Amino acid sequence: MYDKIMVPLDGSNLAECVIPHVEAIISGFNSSEVALVRVLNPVRLPVSVPAQGEYGFTEKDRRRMNENRKIAAEKYLANLSGGLHFPGTEFRSVVLEGNPVSMLADYAAANAVDLMVIASHGRSGISRWVMGSVAERIVRTSCVPVMMIRAPGCEPKMKD
User: Fold for domain 4-150?
Assistant: First the structure.
């Protein structure tokens, strides 16, 4: 049922709280493939203008920053996947660039993903409205089933 699993990660410990759930799913369904996916928003910096002297950024600086972030993301995913060992399950690391919601939904559709497992940061109120919720938008836009794991330490609001 859940042969190909996709795990979006943002580099935080909080996002990694899904790993034990993914391990349980792999054990129960003998999943053949798990894709650990990190999406990077491209760096956009104001480009240097000669009048600004050496305080601006050049296109070369922007490309170097994007490349360094991609290398760091690849190392992060490799370290994380290196600790996961299940016979018969292939772990792949995927780094994408662009809008996280659309890139994740597109990757899932293009790669026949059966289940996406994502952490929710548990934002509510104004912080959720201002910052948005990638996990919530994934649930609304993805064409594959999404398992949302609530962040550790999340406490429900009690009604009077």
Answer: Rossmann fold (3.40.50)
